[in-house]
Design brief:
about 475 residues, rod-shaped, 13 helices, 3-stranded mixed sheet
Length: about 475
């Protein structure tokens, strides 16, 4: 409802940015059109701050006459004599003043803009305010300006606070970025630690071939040198054999065992060379940009590096890898990053199969897996839309449907506490989707295993942006 009396100023109002005209003080002084015109003068004299008077007929609003317009007309020659004794209607019909009518739910900011948009003659005129019950009141234009100035101050204050919050938010965002970068670096360091541990284990076996045979090879070489010295002294073969027997040298055994020893050392050296070559190809330090690469080679290098995790363990048998490779063309991609995806997914598959086997042997309601059951299946093919699809499936415990939607969220992991950072699949998803314009998703059924499907275009769409 409109106020029935005037407040002297708007300083006492508790305005907000979204405040409307309903919150401002208004005048509701009314006069019927059939009253004599001199009553207008009396009313204005009684209320020096009254901006205008609402004109009514049968108590229904028909217009308004402002203080400025009334006294301007009365100050003219014969003005007072012409209209003082006649009904107010005569003066109203003579002036026909333009009025501005606004609803009380109009925001103060909008109302000020409308009022300032009036002609220069009307800009200071009071504004007629109407409410939902069709009651009318008058708002002094100066009260409107005062309210607007308060909102302006509030806006500046709010803007300053928002700027400060934005500054703090930006600082927090930078800190968050920094922390995320450190988390990614930690994830890489963890992966690197696991990789180094696996490579050390893989290199250890062939190194044992070489190191363990070095002692025997050294003795054989000494014996052979002794025999050569005997030849240099022009001893006969019989004398040389006799001298060798005195020294405990078995010539026949050396002739039989030395080739085997050298062959074993060669196998060890070849194995180390394969591991180092696979590591170099896996890291692709010389291929940080988009290049055409053999996807199968990347998968094979990853399997070589993870080979120690596939072997027999004290708590489980060997995990078998079944490969069904299709005929793939060379694919334009970031080879090192793609190999990181293969590493994350295959390592997760190994963990899933291992944990499934251990749980099945702990009495859970899952059929115990035998050695034959523990498998990882890798398939590759070219799709009809010129994309390469790589499917990596395990026959582990599977992932509950309620968790599958969160697999690629940062820091989410299905592994026990301390065994996963929750960043491996998130990083893999980012590499496939953002860097290669592809897709990475999971299909899983509880108790039957999981399958991760990678799809990337044969030719990268990021070539032009490089």
């Amino acid at each position: 409802m409109l106020a029935m009396h005037s407040m002297r100023n708007a300083d006492e109002l508790n305005l907000k940015l979204e405040s409307t005209l309903q919150e401002l003080p208004v005048w509701t002084v009314q006069i019927e059109l059939d009253h004599p015109g001199n009553e207008l003068s009396k009313i204005f004299d009684q209320e020096p701050l009254l901006p205008g008077i609402i004109l009514t007929r049968n108590h229904q609003c028909v217009g308004m006459i402002s203080r400025r317009l009334f006294f301007e007309q009365m100050s003219r020659p014969y003005g007072l004599g012409l209209f003082a004794g006649r009904p107010v209607e005569y003066l109203y019909n003579f002036l026909l003043p333009d009025i501005s009518i606004l609803s009380e739910d109009t925001p103060i900011v909008d109302a000020t803009q409308i009022a300032l948009g009036r002609s220069s003659k009307l800009v200071y005129e009071p504004i007629v305010i109407t409410d939902q019950s069709c009651q009318y009141g008058l708002l002094d234009f100066h009260q409107l300006l005062l309210a607007y100035s308060q909102i302006h101050v509030l806006t500046l204050s709010r803007l300053q606070k928002e700027k400060e919050q934005v500054r703090i938010a930006r600082a927090d965002f930078r800190d968050l970025q920094h922390n995320y970068t450190r988390l990614l670096q930690n994830e890489k360091m963890i992966a690197l630690g696991q990789l180094v541990a696996g490579i050390a284990h893989e290199i250890n076996n062939p190194m044992n071939f070489i190191y363990g045979n070095l002692t025997y090879a050294n003795e054989y070489v000494k014996d052979l040198l002794f025999l050569l010295e005997c030849y240099q002294q022009e001893h006969s073969y019989a004398e040389m054999v006799s001298q060798a027997q005195k020294q405990g040298i078995e010539i026949e055994f050396i002739m039989e065992d030395l080739p085997k020893l050298l062959s074993s050392m060669k196998v060890g050296a070849t194995r180390i060379n394969e591991i180092v070559l696979s590591l170099r190809n896996f890291s692709r330090l010389d291929q940080a940009e988009l290049k055409l690469v053999d996807i199968h080679e990347g998968i094979e290098n990853t399997l070589i590096i993870l080979k120690h995790n596939l072997k027999v363990k004290p708590d489980r048998p060997e995990i078998k890898v079944i490969k069904e490779y299709g005929k793939l063309p060379l694919v334009e991609c970031y080879a090192g990053q793609l190999n990181q995806v293969f590493m994350n997914i295959i390592a997760n598959a190994i963990d899933a199969v291992s944990e499934g086997y251990i749980l099945s042997n702990c009495g859970d309601d899952v059929t115990p897996k035998t050695q034959k059951d523990m498998t990882i299946h890798i398939r590759s093919e070219v799709t009809d839309d010129d994309q390469v699809m790589i499917r990596i499936a395990d026959n582990g415990m599977g992932i509950p449907e309620s968790l599958q939607k969160r697999l690629f969220d940062p820091f989410f992991t299905t592994k026990p506490v301390g065994k996963g950072t929750g960043l491996g699949l998130s990083i893999s998803h980012q590499i496939i989707v953002e860097k290669h314009g592809g897709q990475l998703y999971c299909v899983s059924r509880l108790g039957e295993g999981s399958e991760f499907i990678i799809k990337i275009p044969i030719f990268s769409e990021n070539r032009e942006s490089e």
